[in-house]
Amino acid sequence: MRVLVYDSSSQIRDSLISILITAGYEVVEVKDKKNILTMFGKRPFPAAIIEANEGDTEMTEILEKIYMDDRYKGVHVIVHVLEPTKEFISNMMRIGVSGFLLKPFNEKDFLSRFCMLLEKAHITPKKLKHIVINDLDNFKLVFRHDGVRQILHGMIIEMSPIGLKFIMPSEEANLEVGHVIKNASMSIGSYKINFSINVLEKIGNEYVGEFGDLSAFNSRLVCKFIYEKYIEKLK
């Protein structure tokens, strides 16, 4: 299920992207509110999370256009807002807003609130599927194996928000399904990310692993990296 996300804060957009794609939603962000209608015209969106503030007449006009345009009747708009008045809520509902997410942004409660609003709007997401990217060039996984002194190097060939697939050279140490790599790392840009990997599947020298001990900051980095690779393909 595809969700459009607009917020004036890049930090909030990154957090929303991280939470949603980790849960299996397909996300498209809009960085400038002037481009919201253009993006609606390019792709169908069952739901949109859009920042709106009292006194922002430009955003109100955009939401009214979405509401009045028959092409977007299937879109359920959820407004992200700080301390809305009753008048603001009433005005937003008058122009078709389906629900509200309140600021300050709370990552822990967001997903359950979002899912509740989808259910209230009678939206039943199809089977959610994690974004997987495989256009990785020389992307290395570095770790130590229990009982082996030297540092081992694998080649990451696929990555999703929840895990990765990697290849180990035949001369390197053998890993078994169920093994937990406790001290793995990879580099994204100038950042070195540390985590553990639970080996879920093994086919020859290819392994599928699930992330563990991934901090919230590192999770956002991974999701942002995956998102940017994915969006680049859509352009």
Explain the layout of strands and helices:
Layout: E1 2-6, H1 10-22, E2 26-30, H2 36-42, E3 47-51, H3 57-68, E4 76-82, H4 86-94, E5 99-103, H5 107-120, E6 140-144, E7 151-160, E8 163-167, E9 180-188, E10 191-203, E11 206-212, H6 216-234
Parallel strand pairs: 1-2, 1-3, 3-4, 4-5
Antiparallel strand pairs: 6-7, 7-8, 8-11, 9-10, 10-11
Helix pairs in contact: 1-6
Describe the structure.
- This protein is of the alpha/beta class.
- It is about 30% helix and about 30% strand.
- It contains 6 helices and 11 strands.
- The chain has helices at about 10-20, 35-40, 55-70, 85-95, 105-120, 215-235; strands at about 1-5, 25-30, 45-50, 75-80, 100-105, 140-145, 150-160, 165, 180-190, 190-205, 205-210.
- The strands form 2 sheets. It has a 6-stranded antiparallel sheet, covered by helices on one side.
- Strand 3 (about 45-50), helix 3 and strand 4 (about 75-80) form a beta-alpha-beta unit.
- Helix 1 crosses helix 6.
- The longest helix has 19 residues, at about 215-235.
- The protein is elongated, with a radius of gyration of 21 Å.
- The mean pLDDT is about 90.
